[in-house]
Design goal:
The protein has a domain of 80 residues. Helices cover 43% and strands 2% of the residues. It starts with a strand and ends in a 17-residue tail after the last helix.
C-alpha cells in the first residue's frame, strides 16, 4: 500500500525518498502505481561552504523558520480567548474592569470605581458559572432519563480522566457520625426487606438460546451495556 511516500527505492535499501505529508491514503484500499525510474531526480548533495559567514548562516536559518511558520499558518498572533461559559455581559464587565485598572495605574481613576467594576465582573462570572453548572445538571438528567449511556459515560470520563482511579481509590468506609450509617447489617436488612422491586426473572437460569438471541440483537461493532445497546441479558 502506498501511503504518502512516493519513492523508497527498489530491492536495495533506500537512502532517500520523496514524501508528501499532506496526502494520507492509509485508510483507503490498496492501490498500484508505476513510474519511470529515469524521471526521478536525485537531490543534489549539499556541500558545506567553509567561507560562509556565521551571520549568513543565522539569517538563512531564521528565514527558513519564518517560511515554514507561514506555510503552517502559525505567524499570526493568537487572539484573546474567553471561556465559552461566559456571557457577553460578563465579558464586557471584564473589559471594563481592565480599562479601569489601566487608568488606576496612571492615577486617572479613583480606587472606588475600579473596586466597583471588579465586584461587578466577579458577580457576573459567578452567575455564569452557576448557570453553566445548572445546564450541565439538566443535560445529565436528560441523558439518564433517555438512557443515553454513551453520552453519560463520556461525561464521566471528562470529569475523572481516562481511568476511574479518582472515583474508586480503595474501599469506602461508612461513617457513623455524619451520615448515621453503620457497618452493622441489621440496619440494611431492615431497609432491604421489602421485595416490591424484586424481579423474579433475575433468578432464572440463562439458556443458550437467550445468549444467541442477545448476540443476534446486538448491532455490529457495538458492546452490550454501552453504545446505547441494552444489557438486560448480560
Amino acid at each position: 500500500m502506498i501511503d504518502h511516500i512516493f519513492y523508497v527505492g527498489l530491492k536495495s535499501r533506500p537512502n532517500w525518498c520523496t514524501a508528501n505529508h499532506f496526502l494520507d491514503q492509509s485508510d483507503h484500499m490498496p492501490i498500484t502505481a508505476q513510474w519511470n525510474i529515469d524521471s526521478l531526480e536525485v537531490p543534489e548533495k549539499m556541500l558545506a561552504d567553509g567561507n560562509l559567514a556565521i551571520d549568513e548562516l543565522c539569517d538563512g536559518l531564521i528565514d527558513n523558520i519564518w517560511n515554514q511558520s507561514a506555510r503552517l499558518s502559525a505567524t499570526a498572533a493568537p487572539g484573546e480567548v474567553f471561556k465559552t461559559m461566559l456571557s457577553k455581559n460578563a465579558i464586557n464587565k471584564i473589559k471594563i474592569r481592565r480599562k479601569k485598572f489601566k487608568k488606576l495605574k496612571r492615577k486617572k481613576e479613583p480606587m472606588k470605581k475600579y473596586a466597583n467594576a471588579k465586584l461587578a465582573a466577579i458577580d457576573a462570572i459567578k452567575a455564569d458559572r452557576k448557570a453553566h453548572h445548572a445546564k450541565n445538571l439538566k443535560l445529565i438528567a436528560d441523558q439518564l432519563l433517555n438512557n443515553s449511556s454513551k453520552e453519560y459515560w463520556r461525561y464521566i470520563k471528562s470529569c475523572t480522566g481516562n481511568t476511574l482511579h479518582s472515583v474508586s481509590n480503595g474501599p469506602v468506609d461508612l461513617a457513623k457520625d455524619t451520615t448515621v450509617n453503620s457497618r452493622d447489617p441489621s440496619k440494611w436488612q431492615e431497609l432491604l426487606s421489602d421485595d416490591s422491586d424484586y424481579f423474579p426473572e433475575c433468578d432464572h437460569r440463562i439458556i443458550w438460546t437467550d445468549i444467541t438471541a442477545a448476540l443476534n440483537d446486538t448491532p455490529n461493532n457495538k458492546a452490550p451495556g454501552a453504545d446505547g445497546v441494552p444489557r438486560e441479558i448480560w
